[in-house]
Write a structure and sequence with these properties.
Blueprint (H helix, E strand, L loop, with lengths): L3 E2 L3 H20 L6 H15 L12 E3 L23 E12 L10 E12 L4 E3 L7 H4 E2 L6 H14 L15 H34 L2 H8 L25 E3 L4 E6 L2 E6 L3 E9 L2 E8 L24 E6 L2 H27 L20 E9 L9 E5 L3 E5 L7 E5 L3 E7 L6 E14 L2 E11 L11 H5 L3 H35 L8 E2 L7 E3 L6 E5 L3 E4 L6 E4 L3 E7 L7 E8 L7 E7 L3 H10 L4 E3 L6 H10 L1 H6 L4 H20 L4 H16 L6 H10 L3 H37 L1
Parallel strand pairs: 1-6, 17-20, 25-28
Antiparallel strand pairs: 2-3, 3-4, 4-5, 7-8, 8-9, 10-11, 11-12, 13-14, 13-19, 14-15, 15-16, 17-18, 18-19, 21-22, 22-23, 23-24, 25-26, 26-27
Length: 738
């Protein structure tokens, strides 16, 4: 680009002609046009309109090619190569050795003008890749007072006649005050939109929980669990006549003797068991689950009648040490197994049994396959690539190791389908996010990924003889072109397969359409959703991270509100919390987002209609969600999420008040300086009365100087006395030696 500083009329005229010349040359960059015709077009335009500038025109109009300024692809009068679609041209138009008449500075007697843009040749015509405003009003700067009025008139006239510029550009448009006004207006529009979204969320919450208040309260209460060890007396094990402790593994029960009677206790009623030694005896203490115990949670163990009488503990003492040690071990192991089984049962509650996959078999309708793909999470056995197949109502991944080693995914269970190309990545992948989790081995998962590595690891550069003998730029260029070609082929193959999945799913009328979603890398921002700092990329419907496990898929439609934490001056990072419309679901935290991305994150949240708030501190979301789930209707009746905005506003006001309240005045500042000096000047021998007096009276500098001089004099006298004492001691030592 060329920038003009206090340009005279002749410079502005030459620049306007050069700008018009460049626009006409861009239009000539079309399929089949020889390069010499492009240069000839420029020369003919100059001869027709400004013949005085022909001798100042540059010798070529740019170049094309992988290397910078390749001699075979220079745009000059001798090159007859033709343009083809896909070629990228560096179009450079300029005038050199121009003379400026009546120049005040000899250095400004000659000048040059140049405009360079990158142009892509396509089937439909040229496409400027570096498009931004190049008009005279955007590149001219005036610093002389005498030219300001004329410049303003010229700039206004050019602005009225100039076409509107595209707003989606990364190049700064201006540095004038009007830019700040545009930013303020955009921020105001965003605030208005956020208020509308907040009101909409409030109305939706009121409508959602108004009619279901009683039902939700009853549904929110945990069910009372009743454990039944034995239904009949005949089911009791043998050997209870001796009034001994018996462990029944089959019924998960411990039978304890109480006043000569065998009383069964299910292991779920026993909180813990402790063992201690007392001389030659061993004590076993059974602690039972009762209401009101320290550390117990009533929502986990509800009781039919909390006011009833409960047995809190039973203590048994026996001289048979070996038996009690074995009982303690058996009961502890059995309780661990029971807890493990309960945890597995709770984890498998949301597992939904899928229907049967209808295979497409026969010669008339062959199966659509994607070979040599890996799956994550991995299947059991050796890690080898398998085959992904499309059938009538779903997908099947088949491992080559075993026919029974496969994964079936029905279209009805697919919530999102993502295609992530291998651009700037090591793999190309298809990611499936499910409505309901499925079992992969012994674990359940909602995210299944099929990928293929983009790099060719089987090729060994050091073992290739040809590269040993002939190693140069041509080999590197050939390798780069081969890798670029391979990546394009992988992207095309996976994208076509994803489109076939979408078409096959939409053809089945019983299933909703499965749309292919592609992450927008340009809108991505870094954050820590789990433990590593990764690039989070928005898509049309989600915010995802798919490159490595653990994966992150946040559906935008499921978000109730987003809260930005630690947003305050001086911090380099902030956090973001997503609260979902299903309040029983845990909020998702994304930590350590760079503060430079704050405006981009706000703009993205506002563009996808997600209401957001911000605050200077981290909140206890466990307690907040517990309060909301206790009574959602009352939560929205009391204002809903408005407490987040009110809290942030109150904290800002408090910070400003505290800052003004503790702002140091001139007298305080001088007092603090005097305190610091006094701490540096006065030693521990200084009297506390003098320090207190100086603090209360607020002494001036002269008085402090007098005190400092007096202190130095006292310190000097003490030093002289110490030297005298040292001299006397040394003399005394000399006498002793003699």
């Amino acid at each position: 680009r060329t920038y003009l500083i206090d340009p005279p009329k002749s410079q502005e005229k030459n620049y306007a002609f050069l700008l018009d010349l460049q626009s006409k040359l861009v239009d000539t960059l079309r399929k089949g046009t020889p390069l010499n015709e492009v240069y000839g077009k420029a020369q003919s335009l100059i001869r027709a309109r400004r013949p005085d500038l022909e001798k100042h025109f540059v010798k070529n109009c740019g170049f094309m090619g992988i290397e910078f300024r390749e001699s075979l692809y220079v745009i000059n009068a001798k090159n007859t190569r033709k343009l083809e679609p896909g070629m990228v041209i560096n179009l450079s138009v300029g005038l050199q050795n121009l003379e400026l008449a009546n120049a005040s500075d000899p250095k400004q007697a000659t000048y040059a003008l140049q405009l360079i843009d990158t142009v892509l040749v396509t089937e439909d015509g040229p496409q400027v890749l570096t498009d931004c405003s190049k008009s005279a009003n955007d590149i001219s700067y005036f610093f002389k007072a005498g030219q300001e009025d004329d410049a303003k008139d010229a700039v206004d006239e050019q602005r009225r006649s100039a076409p509107t510029r595209p707003t989606s550009t990364a190049v700064l448009k201006t540095k004038f005050r009007s830019e700040a006004q545009d930013e303020e207006s955009a921020e105001q529009r965003r605030q208005v939109h956020q208020r509308e979204l907040a009101e909409r969320r409030q109305r939706e919450g009121m409508d959602r929980f108004a009619d279901r208040q009683d039902a939700d309260q009853n549904a929110g209460k945990p069910a009372i669990k009743k454990f039944e060890s034995y239904r009949r007396v005949e089911s009791l094990p043998n050997g209870l006549e001796s009034c001994r402790i018996v462990v029944d593994r089959r019924a998960h029960t411990v039978i304890l003797p109480v006043y000569g009677l065998a009383v069964p206790f299910h292991l779920s009623a026993i909180k813990n068991i402790s063992k201690s030694e007392e001389g030659d005896h061993v004590l076993l203490r059974f602690n039972f689950v009762t209401p009101g115990q320290p550390g117990s949670r009533k929502e986990d163990q509800p009781f039919e009648d909390p006011n009833a009488t409960f047995v809190r503990a039973l203590l048994y003492r026996s001289p048979d040490t070996n038996r009690f040690m074995q009982l303690y071990k058996d009961i502890t192991d059995l309780k661990k197994d029971l807890n493990k089984r309960d945890a597995e049962t709770k984890e498998m509650e949301d597992i939904v049994s899928q229907g049967r996959l209808i295979e497409l078999a026969g010669k008339c309708r062959p199966r659509i396959r994607l070979p040599l793909v890996f799956i994550r999470p991995t299947l059991e056995g050796k890690r080898v690539p398998g085959e992904l197949q499309i059938h009538q109502n779903g997908l099947r991944y088949q491992s080559p190791l075993n026919v029974n080693l496969r994964v079936d995914l029905l279209f009805s269970n697919i919530k999102h389908l993502f295609f992530q190309p291998c651009d700037n990545e090591l793999i190309v992948l298809l990611h499936v996010h499910l409505h309901h989790p499925v079992m992969m081995g012994k674990k359940k998962t909602k995210d299944i990924q099929f990928y293929r590595e983009a790099a060719d690891n089987q090729f060994d550069e050091t073992g290739n003889r040809r590269r040993r003998q002939h190693y140069g730029d041509e080999d590197e260029l050939a390798a780069e072109q081969e890798e670029r070609r391979r990546r394009m082929h992988l992207n095309k193959e996976f994208k076509q397969f994803a489109d076939r999945i979408s078409d096959m799913a939409s053809s089945a009328l019983l299933h909703p359409r499965v749309a292919v979603d592609v992450p927008f890398r340009d809108l991505g921002f870094f954050g820590v959703p789990f433990r590593a700092n990764v690039l989070l990329q928005p898509t049309t419907d989600c915010l995802v991270f798919l490159s490595d496990p653990p994966f992150l898929v946040v559906t935008i439609a499921d978000i109730e509100i987003a809260h930005l934490e630690r947003v305050q001056f001086g911090l380099k990072n902030f956090d973001m919390v997503f609260v979902f419309k299903d309040f029983k679901r845990q909020p998702v935290h994304i930590n350590t987002i760079p503060m430079t991305q704050l405006d981009n994150v706000k703009e993205w949240l506002d563009s996808v209609d997600v209401p957001f708030t911000e605050g200077p501190v981290n909140l206890n979301w466990t307690a907040i969600m517990k309060t909301i789930n206790a009574d959602p209707a009352a939560f929205f009746e009391e204002g809903g999420w408005s407490f987040l905005r009110e809290k942030s506003d109150d904290e800002e006001v408090t910070e400003s008040e505290s800052a003004s309240e503790f702002e140091a005045s001139d007298s305080d500042r001088s007092q603090s300086y005097s305190d610091e000096d006094s701490e540096g000047i006065y030693s521990e021998d200084a009297s506390e009365d003098e320090m207190d007096e100086s603090e209360e009276s607020g002494e001036d500098w002269d008085e402090l100087d007098r005190k400092a001089q007096a202190y130095d004099e006292r310190r000097g006298k003490r030093k002289d006395t110490a030297d005298t004492m040292k001299g006397g001691a040394s003399a005394q030592r000399k006498k002793v030696r003699h």
